[in-house]
Amino acid sequence: MLGYASTKVLWEIAPKGGRVMHVEQDRPVGLLTLTAVTPKEEVVLRDLGTASVFGQILRYQGRGSISPNAPLSERMWLRFSYGFGKKLTLLATTEEDEKAVRQIRDAIYFGGGGLIFTIYSVRDGKSSVDFAIAQCKVCDKPVISLVECEWLYCDACAAKCEHRYERGPIHGGGVDLGMGEFCGICGRGKPKPEGEPERPLYDHHIAAEEELGVQVIYENLPGITPRMLKGFVEGTAKKVLVVEDDQYWSGIIRRGLKGKVLVAQAFTTEEAEAVFQESPDLAVILMDACVPGDDPNTMWLVRKMRETFTGPIIAISSNSDYRKELIQAGCDHEAEKTEAAQKVLELVGVS
Ligand SMILES: [Zn+2]
Ligand SMILES: [Zn+2]
Prior knowledge:
- By secondary structure, this protein is an alpha+beta fold.
- Helix content is about 30%, strand content about 30%.
- It folds into 3 domains: about 10-150, no CATH class; about 160-190 and about 200-230, no CATH class; about 240-350, Rossmann fold (3-Layer(aba) Sandwich).
- It has helices at about 40-50, 95-110, 145-150, 155-160, 200-210, 225-235, 245-255, 270-280, 300-305, 320-330, 335-350; strands at about 10-15, 20-25, 30-35, 55-65, 75-80, 85-90, 115-125, 125-130, 135, 140-145, 165-170, 175-185, 240-245, 260-265, 280-285, 315, 335.
- Strand 13, helix 7 and strand 14 form a beta-alpha-beta unit.
- It is elongated.
């Protein structure tokens, strides 16, 4: 489960308009502290101090990026309302800010829906305001981190908890969705055995798919499942060479393989030879007869491949006579082009 990287972080956040305000996060104390740096911020914080009373919630109004075109990952701001029509905006101006702003947003999502005003003070001549995000249900201490806010359980109380671990969906700590062991009382994750490496994200996703019956979809990788990703990253995905001069058919076959295998498309016999030479770990080869043209001209290539390749070679000419010739040359399977992809998936045992 997610916690802040360190217990105390100092960063700068500018209210919208580019002004810079110091925000300090002290997790053990459970407070976020905004300190004015510029005269304008002095005005904002003094006003906030006058308009707010202890325990008052500055309602979260939403977030956004600095301009409609800027990616959210670059700059994010959070807006809060207080008093009558008054708003406070925290704007991230650096990458560090961005992290902090996201942490505040996540904590607020699970907390009480805003920043809880606790105190206005003047420190070293500068206006300063302290906020909490939620409160520990055991000891009432204010809390500001995601895991504390989600479980309403402060770190100090969690340290004293007699954990009862259970298995269920987890998030946080860089994992958006996964399965793991966590305490059903305080929400803290079960410590990993010493030296056990972090599991890759796709393993978490595969576990979530299996145990929760959900389907994980990657926005930036359309059509790719966590299982495929694991195969690609860990090099266990099967490799398939499609020798087919017709772009249309080659494309149909590639799409038919649905990203479940790695596909190399060769549109000439030269390309096919080159790929074949560079890929000693091919699982299946699909072979058209006329590459290119209308006369069968790939039998020599099949014979040559057969000198070293022992895996399946599928004859995929649409002409059944040519398929026979290909089989005589060394192909051991045949399929219509429309059936070729399915045949490959059967042969490699991926469904
Ligand atoms: Zn507590
Ligand atoms: Zn616990």
